[in-house]
Structure formats: structure tokens, C-alpha cells
Amino acid sequence: MASTQTSGAPARQTSAIAGLDSLELGPVSTGRSPGRLARKTWAATWPKLLAIALVLGAWQLFHLSNFRGDTASGLVKGPGPGLANLWDQLHHATLWQAIGDTAQTAVTGYLLALVIGSIIGAVASRIPPLRAATGSIISGLQTMPSIAWFPFAIILFGTSVSAILFVMVLGAAPSIANGLITGVNYTPPMLLRAGRTMGLRGVALYRYLILPASLPAYLAGLRQGWAFAWRSLMAGELLVIIVGHLSLGILLNNAQDNQDLASAISIMIVILVIGIMIDAVFTKTDLAVRRRRGLLIDAQPA
Amino acid sequence: MKVLQRNGVPPCPGQPRSRALLNGPRPGGPGSGDDAAIRLTEISKVYGRGTGAVHAVDRLSLTVRDGEFVCLVGASGCGKSTLLSIVAGLDTPTAGQVDTGGRHVAIMFQEPALFPWLTARRNVELALRARRVPRYQRRQRAIELLETVHLGDFAGKRPHELSGGMRQRVALARALAQDADVLLMDEPFGALDAMTRDLLHDELERICSERSLSVLFVTHNVREAARLGDRVVLLSSRPGRVIGEYEVPRTGPRRIDSASVAGLASTVTDRLREEMKRHG
Question: CB–CB of B70/B248 below 8 Å?
Fold first, then answer.
């Protein structure tokens, strides 16, 4: 039985190869210095600070423009009083309760979509005729604005969380299924050949080759699915008013009913921040996966 | 496992073998029973049907003896890669027979085709897993195999962190992990620079003789074939047929710039040009 036989190799040969290897790999990166870290942090931070400043500036201009004349001028408060309102709300249990409630629906709906979408994607990618058929259904579903499903969902489920979950799943599952199908379809044929010659077959081929190879496309599907789910959720909370239920959509509705623009803006900021935070998680994951696979060139801003 | 003395006395020293002996089936002939690692009999491969059909390979017969290093050389369209795919079982011939006598066959391509999400070690381990090597042995075996190709220090690197030559060596380690008796190589060094290729030739020669592997090595580089092969087999283009065979006398260590290698290379090249003129 063959085992280690390195000792048989002439030393001269070994050192020639080691030398060539180190030449080809180039100089090793010098690692992290505090100065570089600070520069990197600053490079990542200033665009965001500038964006916030621009938004606040626009808000102030809007306030100064005295939109809708004197009678209504009190409605549009400037960024100062507006942010004070948000600060105030953040110290009340109501907002946090609403955030908790919305988050719970978001997680439930997204997990449902994740499971259903992944199963559909996995099955469809294995059976070519089914894949062709589901492809059309999926693109059809994606062009349909999810809000158009609400009358259907409310008739079917009544004004309940189920109606919202239903629309979320319809919005998100197709994207997730599509991501997985795309990933499987675009598994490099070269890797499949290599896997088959190694003796990977059936489930093992899926588990160790096709699924890991599809991960980047699947992640892109998950991210798009989340965007659809979040939009469907917000639309649902505004449309499906459930008695005794407190959610961000209901707070937004209340603000509308009370002609309370400052509160409406506060809730919108909360919704925006949640969206940005979740998106940042997806971006980070995506970058990590791509970096691991060498699909990303670490471009350092000079 | 027997060890072949690669630099010792060759199985059939120095003499050009007659075509009649190598082509066609030799049932029960002397030395044909046990020592054939690969026996291809009248292999044909046709793509498509009717008037548009392309004959990639036409009634090709070839035998690779145990422990022999055979280089297949030919211009484009000689069905070299098709032939390897057929031997590897990735493709089926339209007609003819492939017999590897139940030997394990591993194949290496021009692209390393490593899995980019796995480290070098894990890539090798996956081949061991596919062979059902128990988990507790895999890590150790993978490291040993990487050390064989002088990459023990790079076990934790991912493919994109390695150079082209290093990736191809990981691919070689992965092929060795399949514990094959027969190694099929489809222009494995085609994408590498000359210096790396030279070093890898030495490496491959060492590993093959240590493990007494039988190798069928496809290349369009005549010098590479003359450098590596115990026998160089020349194929015609479309359809692929054997049009010449050159036994390489084993007199000692060879290098790509050895006089004997250069001599054989120019003979083969001349014959190859004749063949190309036929198409021109």
C-alpha cells in the first residue's frame, strides 16, 4: 500500500519547488496596523455620515419651504423636533412592543418562505420538466406585486396574521427557490466531472458538491426573498388591521389617522433602520462567502 | 504492491514495436494476459447522426501495460480527450471495448477543478471520503498525500490562494487519494509556465514510479511527451487513429532539453506535420 514517500524525493528538487512556490505566491501581506484599520474604518464610515447629513438637509429644506401654506405648516416639523419625537417614542414601551410584534411576524414568514422555497427549489432542480414549468410560474409570481394578493389572502384567511404570512411566503419563496435552482444549474461542469470521477454519486454528489457550489446563488436568492418578504409584511400590516394587535404598520396607521407627521416619520425611520440592518447582515455573509472562494479581490482604497 | 524500476531495464528495450502487435486484440498472446492496465479494442466514437455525424475516434486500439507511461500526442481534433473520457467511464464509446481489468482509474484535467469552498486538505479528504476511508484516517492521509506533492505547508490554503502549479499538484494529490492504479491525464500541465512544468515533470515521474502507476497522458506538446513517456503514441486528426508509435529507450534520467528527448521530439513533430498536410 502506498503511503508517504517524501523521503525518496531528492532534496534539491524539493527546495527548487519550495522556492518556486514562494516566488509565485508573492510577498505575504504585512498584516493589520492600527493606522490601516483606522483608515479602513473611516473609508467605510464617511459615505454613511454624508448620506445622513444629506437626508437631514433635505428634511430641513422641506420644513423651510413651508409646504401646504401657513395653516398646515405646523405639520411638517424640522429634523430637530422630528428626531425629538423619535427619541420620545424610543422611551415608550409601545414602540418596542410594536417592533417585537413585527419582528416576530417577519421571522415566522421568512422562515416559512425559506423552508417552502428551498424545498421547491431542491425538487425542481432535480427534475428537469418540473424545473421548466416552475421557472415560468416563478417568473410570473415575481412580476405580480405582492400587495395585489391581499384581497385574495383576506378572503381566504380573514383579517389575521395568517393572511400576512401567506402573502409574505408568496413574495419570498419564489426568489429563494429561484436562487437555489440557478445555483444548481450553474454548478461548473468541470467540478461535476471531477466529482463524478472521484466517485461522488446521488445524495453525496448533492451534499458535497452541488449544494456548496450553489451557495452564492442561493444566498442571493435569500437576500432578494428577504426584500420581498419585508415589503409584503409592511404592506400587510397597513392593510390587514388586526384588533388587539400592535405592529409598526398599526403605529403608522395611527399616525396617519391622527395627522401626526412627526410620528409617521419616526416609525418610517425605525422601519428603514431595521431594513438596513438586516441587509447589512446579508451583505456581510455574501462577502464572506465570496472572499472564501476567491471570487472577491480585496480592493483597498488608497 | 510491486515496485517498477522505472530507471532500470525497460520492459521492451529500445526497439520500435510493430504496429501489428499493438493494434487490435491479442487474445492469449504472450504478456497480454495480466500486464495490460488499459486495453482499448477497436474503439470508435461518433457524435451526431446521419450526414452531420463527426467521427472523433475511429477503430482505435491501444494497450497500456502495467506501470507504463504512455503519452498520446496529436493535433487538434484527434479525439484525445474523448478517448480519456471513455477510459475514465465519463463517456461511452459508439463501438469497441474498454478493459481496465477492474483497476481503479483516476483522471486529471487541464484545469485543476478543485472545489473552491474547500481548503487543499479538505479537497483531498473529499476524495478519500468518496472512497469511504474512515473519518479518523482521512486527515492524516490527506496531509501525507499533500506532502508527497510538497504541499504539506499549504494544507490550510484555499485553491484561490495557491498558484496554478500548486493547484495542479493538489489535483494530483486528490487523484492519488483515489488510490488508483491507472492515472489518466488530460494536458494537466498545459496551462503552466515552462519552468513550473519542468519541475512537475520530475515530480510526476518520481510519484508514478514510487507508486508503480500506469499512466495515459494526453498532450499536444511533443517535447513533453518525449520527456515523460515510455512510449509516445501519435494520433491522426478526425477521425483519431494511431499513426505512429515510438518506444523511448530508458537509459537514465531525462530532461526536457536532453539530446535524446529533442531527437525524438523532432521525429514526432515531422510525422505530425505530414499528418497536418494531409488535412490542408
Answer: no
Q: Is residue B217 part of a domain?
A: no
User: In chain B, which residues have pLDDT < 50?
Assistant: 1-33
- Listed in sequence order, the DSSP H helices in B66-213 are 80-88, 120-130, 135-148, 164-177, 194-210
Of A2, A14, A212, nearest to B150 by CB-CB distance is A14
Total domain count, chain B: 1
Q: Which residues of A touch B106 (CB under 8 A)?
A: 197
Which of the pair, A36 or A247, is modelled with greater confidence?
A247
Query: Is B119 inside a domain boundary?
Result: no
Phi/psi at A284 (nearest 5 deg)?
Answer: -60, -45
Per the listing, cell 416559512 goes with A112
Q: Kindly state whether residue B258 falls inside one of the protein's structural domains.
A: yes
Complex confidence, ipTM:
0.75
CATH of the domain at A103: 1.10.3720.10
Per the CB < 8 Å rule, is B1 touching A1? yes
Q: State pTM to two decimals.
A: 0.76
- Apex A78 CA angle, A72 and A79, nearest 5: 145
List, as one string, the DSSP characters of B34-68.
SSEEEEEEEEEEEES-GGG-EEEEEEEEEEEETT-
* Chain A closest-CA separation from residue B261 CA (Å): 20
Residue of A nearest to B128 (CA): A198
How open is the CA angle A240-A245-A251, to the nearest 5 degrees? 75
DSSP-based three-state secondary structure for B240: strand
Q: Which helix (H) or strand (E) covers residue B72, if one does? A: strand B69-74
Classify residue B65: in a domain, yes or no. yes
Give the chain A residue nearest B177 (alpha carbons): A198
Residue B238 near residue B47, CB atoms below 8 Å: no
d(CA B196, CA B165): 6
Query: Which domain covers residue A232, as residue numbers?
Result: 77-292
* Contact assignment for B131 to A5 by CB distance below 8 Å: no
Domains in chain A, number? 1
Phi, psi of B229, rounded to the nearest 5 degrees: -75, 145
Cα–Cα dist A95/A272, whole Å: 14
Minimal-distance CA residue of chain A relative to B147: A6
A 10 A CB-CB count for A36 gives: 12
Each residue's pLDDT tens digit, A166-222: 999 999 999 999 999 989 988 888 898 888 888 888 888 888 999 999 999 999 999
Give me B193's grid cell.
509556465
CB pairs under 8 A between A and B: 102
Task: Tell me which chain B residues have a C-beta less than 8 angstroms from the C-beta of A25.
Answer: 161-163
Provide the angle, in degrees to the nearest 10, between the axes of the packed helices A248-257 and A93-126: 130
Set of chain A residues whose Cβ sits within 8 Å of the Cβ of B207: 5
